[in-house]
Design brief:
By secondary structure, the chain is of the alpha+beta class. InterPro entries: SpoVT-AbrB_sf.
């Protein structure tokens, strides 16, 4: 286990946690990631939050709403497909 030391500071009316470059690298977090914080015993666990389908749809439209995946060819028609 790697140990790093961080600091809590005042940011406006809130308190914020500053994470060092080393901690960010160890965690795999990137700027803008959403995280979940869970309390367990005397500590906390911070994990990256997976995007919900709602988040993914919002991001799709926020990024121009363009579908960039290539089409898949399933072969010729075998029934009444259009």
């Amino acid at each position: 286990m790697n140990l790093t030391h961080e600091r809590i500071f005042k940011s406006g009316n809130s308190k914020a946690l500053s994470l060092s470059r080393q901690t960010i690298k160890l965690s795999g977090f990137e700027i803008g990631d959403k995280v979940e914080v869970r309390k367990k015993d005397d500590g906390i666990f911070i994990t990256k939050k997976e995007d919900s389908i709602e988040d993914r749809i919002k991001n799709f439209y926020r990024n121009g709403g363009k579908y960039t995946e290539t089409e898949t060819d399933f072969g010729g028609s075998v029934g009444r497909e259009i």
